[in-house]
Amino acid sequence: MDDLDGRLLAALAADGRASVSALAAELGVTRATVRARMARLTEAGEILGFRAVLRGDLADRPVRGVVSIEVEGTGAPRITRSLLALPEVIAVHSTHGRWDLVAELGADTLEALDAALGRIRRIDGVSRSETSLYLSTRRR
Question: Which of 4, 31, 58, 114 lies 20 to 30 Å from 41, alpha-carbon distance?
């Protein structure tokens, strides 16, 4: 991948619906070059698809963050099921390193998120947790 590929990927990340003509003009190359590069990047697996960022993606559950969780013993599968049963939990990831699980959280208010964190800390087998709140979100 060269500089032009990188600039093309950045332009597509900013506006996945940009026309080939608009991309060509922005990058200072021909439409044929943009088409060929997009085809090659797609074939190589660098471009996996295109998606719309919806207003709801940013507005739903405006108080968001992650909680890193240390699990006692071999309870991770059971704790993961308990976490996924909570409406504030968006996703749970197993990890390698200091923490065993990382849960993505979202709530309407800080109070609701705080209540969810209290429920998470009371799950049997959760020995320790650390929470980080998202202050702002920017998307490529």
Answer: 58
Q: Helices 3-14 and 31-43 meet at what angle, rounded to 10?
A: 90
Secondary element (H or E) of residue 3: helix 3-14
Residue 20 lies in a domain: yes
Return the CATH number at 20: 1.10.10.10
Residue 58 pLDDT > 70: no
User: What's the CATH number where 69 sits?
Assistant: 3.30.70.920
Provide the sign of the torsion angle of the four alpha carbons 108, 110, 114, 115, taken in this order. negative
Quick one: pLDDT at residue 53? Answer: 63
- Tell me the whole-structure pTM to 2 decimals: 0.59
Range of the domain at 10: 3-43
Number of domains in the chain: 2
Please give the Cα distance from 37 to 11 (Å, whole number): 13
Q: How far is CA 20 from CA 11, 15, 30, 34, 77, in A?
A: 11, 11, 9, 6, 46
Question: For residues 130 and 67, is the Cβ–Cβ distance under 8 A?
Answer: yes
